[in-house]
Amino acid sequence: MAPPPPSSGMSFRSADRPLDSYQFTFESFLEDSARIEPDSNGHDVYDTKSLSDSIARSQEEFGRTYHSYRAGSYHFPNDPSENDRNEEQYAIIDMVLDGRLHLAPFSRAHPPRKVLDIATGTGTWAVEMGDLYPEAEVIGTDLSPIQPAFVPPNVRFFIEDSSDDWDYPDLFDFIHTRVTIGCWSDMKAQIIERAFNHLQPGGWLECQEIPCMIGCDDGTMPDDYGWLRWVREFQAAGQLAQRDLNIGPHIKDWMREVGFVDIHESVFKIPINGWPKEVRLKHVGMMWQRNLLEGVSAFSLGMFNRFLGKTVEEIELSLVDVRRSLFDRDVHAYHRLYVVWGRKPEAA
Ligand SMILES: C[S@@+](CC[C@H](N)C(=O)[O-])C[C@H]1O[C@@H](n2cnc3c(N)ncnc32)[C@H](O)[C@@H]1O
């Protein structure tokens, strides 16, 4: 039922869309006399499991907490301050992607039906996908039980190590990763090949990843820039930990080698502080700077202690200059967000 056109008694501010461009429908709010049609597929495919105490408990080290299931596999904390930082990082990526949850060609008119979010973290992407696509079944998996309990009914979380064999009864039509550096020893074999095998023909894999290496286009970043020195040390620890911390630029090739087609790559720049002139980028940069300042201790403690043999005191002392370098607006450095999506061929 369309509302009446504006009459002499109604006025619109010029910024508002006139109401008569909308078509209202009330058919989903049923009256008492209306029958509700039952879904013939009346059972849930996935049952939720209760967590055993040992998985739910975290391990303490360096004054932080870490996952206890497959302990020692992921070297960044899972405590409230790291989870808050991840939420803020989520908001920054949301701004960079203009509110889009994915770039793979799904939409309200063409929704995904079975979605897997690997290394879901606090599960915000999975929850927002569940809200956006109520007809979809969304599964998020992670080593840490840090996901909310109150989620849309079509969203489920499981604790698992995604580098193990995957054991899902159905094929997915959308598989997703976001910010998973430090999770895998071999992302191609552990994630991209497995995703290919667990997608139905025509399904999509999308990876949204931020490599740790920074870039600069105008020569303002000296070779001894503090954050760049930190990145090199972080990479050295990553090599010893068998964790590739620069996965973004390789994903396109890995997808092609595994058999994906129709592969797209979009790369977005995230300034490391408020150095850009453009207001929106400046805002993103200032938020990113705060995120890096909050996160650098979490990124460093496990990696630099376990693999470079540094004490907590040595690490924290070395971070003073690293943090200070993030305030230097004369250095026009940025991180890159790689968004890569590809399709499993219909014939595969
Ligand atoms: C930086 S968080 C990102 C979370 C989320 N994708 C996001 O965008 O906010 C990385 C997550 O990967 C999880 N993780 C690390 N190794 C994993 C593995 N082998 N299997 C499953 N999850 C893993 C960690 O527990 C952590 O929650």
From TrEMBL:
CDD domains named in the record: AdoMet_MTases
Gene3D superfamilies: Vaccinia Virus protein VP39
Pfam families linked: Methyltransf_23 (PF13489)
GO molecular function: methyltransferase activity
Organism domain of life: Eukaryota
SUPFAM superfamilies in the record: S-adenosyl-L-methionine-dependent methyltransferases (SSF53335)
Family the entry assigns: Belongs to the methyltransferase superfamily. LaeA methyltransferase family.
PANTHER family documented for this protein: METHYLTRANSFERASE
Name of the protein this chain belongs to: Methyltransferase
Lineage: Eukaryota, Fungi, Dikarya, Ascomycota, Pezizomycotina
